[in-house]
Amino acid sequence: MAKKFLYINRKAPHGTVYALESLEVVLIAAAFEQDVSLAFIDDGVYQLMRNQDTSQIGVKNFTPTYRALGDYEVNKIYVERESLEARGLSQDDLMPLTWEDEDEDWAEKDSIHVISSQEMADILEQQDVILNF
Amino acid sequence: MALEINGNSYETDEEGYLTNLSDWNDELANEMAKADGAVLDENHWEVINFLRDYYEEYQIAPAVRVLTKAVGKKLGKDKGTSKYLYELFPYGPAKQACKYAGLPKPTGCV
Amino acid sequence: MSILHIVNKSPYERNSFDSCLRMAKKGAGLLLIEDGIYAAQDSGDAHGNLKTATDRLTVYALQPDVIARGMNDKIDAAVTLIDYDGFVKLTTEYDNVQSWL
Hints:
The complex is a heterotrimer. Chain A contains three helices and seven strands; from the N terminus they run E-H-E-E-H-E-E-E-H-E. By secondary structure, chain A is an alpha/beta fold. Chain A has a single domain, classed as Hypothetical Protein Ychn, Chain: A (3-Layer(aba) Sandwich). Chain A has helices spanning 18-31, 81-86, 117-125, and strands at residues 4-9, 35-40, 76-80, 98-101, 107-110, 112-115, 129-132. In chain A, the strands form two sheets. In chain A, strands 6-3-2-1-7 form a five-stranded parallel beta sheet. In chain A, strands 4-5 form a two-stranded antiparallel ribbon. Chain B is mainly alpha-helical. Chain B is built from five helices and two strands, in the order ββααααα. Chain B has helices at residues 26-35, 42-58, 64-75, 82-88, 93-100, and strands at 2-5, 8-11. In chain B, strands 1-2 form a two-stranded antiparallel ribbon. In chain C, strands 4-3-2-1-5 form a five-stranded parallel beta sheet, sandwiched between helices. The longest helix of chain C is centred in the middle third of the chain and has 10 residues, at 47-56. Helix content of chain C is 34%, strand content 22%. Chains in contact: A-B, A-C. At the A-C interface, loops of A face helix 3 of C.
């Protein structure tokens, strides 16, 4: 029986190892066919910025891996609108993340859902397990 | 650990996965297969090259389930089955094919 | 006596940037590195504090950290981007360095 897992990401990428660790755990859970959702709140929204290039700071650029989440059927990616707005950002600043719906002839669909704090509160209530990074 | 091929030494981890992605070449893949008692044909190479492209784009080696689905989509439905992939790579498609492709062990691989 | 202040934490997560601004004297240097570069953004709730900083201090941001975070198009024009050599040079130009960890 698949459980509903929510991974909450609240840290900026690269400065700490939280973002990368979260992504790896998410991929492992998804490989075991659990029902996985991701939430990006506070500085976590910076993880999804387009065009991150770590070649000059000597660490692996793991951000292209977010684009593989669709292949793992991780397609419920929630971004809190209030966190984006507090940072002067909008969805256009984030990398596009999509998945292909096998039931609709592989139609490409958006995985990112920008939602309000209120809607995020509802998402939290729907989970069996919540993990924080 | 290290792999010795034609007088060159390549660093690997304790399970035989290449440490440096950039060390990889065709000959290295063939030698790794030989050590496992296998010979790589064009069907093996199709999967190995697919894995290298996938890694290049997403910076990860895909889990078996993801690999199977993606191979089916790219190389044809008859090849997108775990039976087909396990026949090619009996030690586990993700694990064995990734090793020959010079990639790290897939995340979530058991 | 002139100090180079260094901040490496996001202004949205820690108060290092605010504390630094309270104690940095006019004419001092402020270098933003690592997650501190988010304070150099040209928009967002922290931008008011950046304005306070650029009015009184010379503000720098480490470009490799900016590029790593995909923020190169979002840095305020009053902030000077520097590379690693520039970082080393700055530390020699000021009398002392204070890192707000």
